Amino acid sequence: MKILVLNCGSSSLKSQVFETSPEQIANTTDRVLAKAVVERIGTQDAIISVTADGRRTRTTRPVLSMDDALAAVIDAIAPFGPIEAIGHRVVHGGETFQEPVEINEDVIEQIEDLYDLAPLHNPHNVRGYRATKTLLPRARHVAVFDTAFHHTIPPHSYLYGIPYSYYAQDGYRRYGFHGVSHRYISWRYAQLHGQPKDHFKIISCHLGNGSSMCAIDRGRSVDTSMGFTPLEGLLMGTRCGDIDASLVLHMMAMSGEGPSAMENLLTRKSGLYGLSGLSSDMRDRKSTRLNSSH
At what angle do helices 259-268 and 245-255 cross, to 10 degrees? Predict the structure, then answer.
């Protein structure tokens, strides 16, 4: 069985084609046939990297949208088909989705209802599904949610210090993200040490354009740095991370900006990009701001 796994992020697309079966999964003998990564989506100098048969190719060309990136990936993996199933990473599942689910239009509508909670990701995740559904119409599609792993976080960690009614009525709580990555780290760490994952307590770090940390107690998430949305926690590529709520209110009052403009500022124009005035990518080393005094 050939499975394509897609991770449609805010600025990149990562994918792998696996050859697998229930027996291979049980014995951890799945075989990776190909990897395809598209970075810097939305730019004229996007990077497309494909690894297969021990060889790696790298090209740079304009990739202006997620649809363009997906078309490039489907073209790159065509020799390794036919693809029977596609696993889609979906960032925000709210309290609705606590495990993987096969995608249909009802599922898509529920994911779309969560757009406001993950504006940089859920729309791309849905776009990835729709594009691949058109390109590979016979494949089955499954959504795997980043928030699902964190449903084991206890109330004293996921509740905010605001009136409880905001959680009870509106679901305002810490959800946590990058759960697929943190769960894998926990499983892989235990595998490398040759013991069950319930023997370990670890802190895992997912570092990239979006970053988070997670406390994992015997394979279960018990706390994490991201919260109600992926904006909370560590300083990231374009996201501010933790910030005094009063500062946001002050900025809004002084600038006259409304919630949408402030959300755009904190989500898309802050972090490394905002501090450097140049880029959200650590590989772009010449900053007109940070490097001027160091």
Answer: 120
Q: Any residues with CB less than 8 A from the CB of 52 and at least 6 apart, and which?
A: 33, 34, 35, 79, 80
CA-nearest of 267, 282, 179, 269 to 229 is: 267
Q: How far apart are CA 118 and CA 38, in angstroms?
A: 21
Do 146-229 and 1-144 have the same topology in CATH? Answer: yes
Which H or E element spans position 169? helix 164-170
Query: Does the annotation count 146 as an active-site position?
Result: yes
Instruction: For residues 216 and 150, give the distance between their C-alpha atoms in angstroms, rounded to a whole number.
Output: 10
CATH class of 1-144: alpha beta
Instruction: Classify domain 146-229 by CATH number.
Output: 3.30.420.40
CB of 2 closer than 8 Å to CB of 30: no
Note if the pTM is more than 0.85.
no
Q: Residue 273: which of 288, 294, 251 has the closest Cα?
A: 288
User: What's the rounded Cα separation, in Å, for the pair 211 and 230?
Assistant: 9
Candidates 30, 67, 106, 146; catalytic one: 146
Owner of token pair 């990776």: 32
Domain residue ranges in the chain: 1-144, 146-229, 235-289
Q: How many CB atoms lie within 10 A of CB 47?
A: 17
**Residue 28 token pair:** 């951890």
Q: What are 5's strand-pairing partners?
A: 16, 87
pLDDT (tens digit, 0 to 9) for every residue of the chain, 294 residues total? 899 999 987 678 999 999 988 888 777 788 999 999 999 888 899 999 999 888 999 999 999 888 888 888 888 888 887 899 999 999 889 998 999 999 999 999 999 998 887 777 888 899 889 988 988 889 999 999 999 999 999 999 999 999 999 999 988 999 999 999 999 999 999 989 999 999 999 999 999 888 999 999 999 999 999 999 889 999 999 999 999 999 999 999 999 999 999 999 999 999 999 999 988 887 776 544 555 544
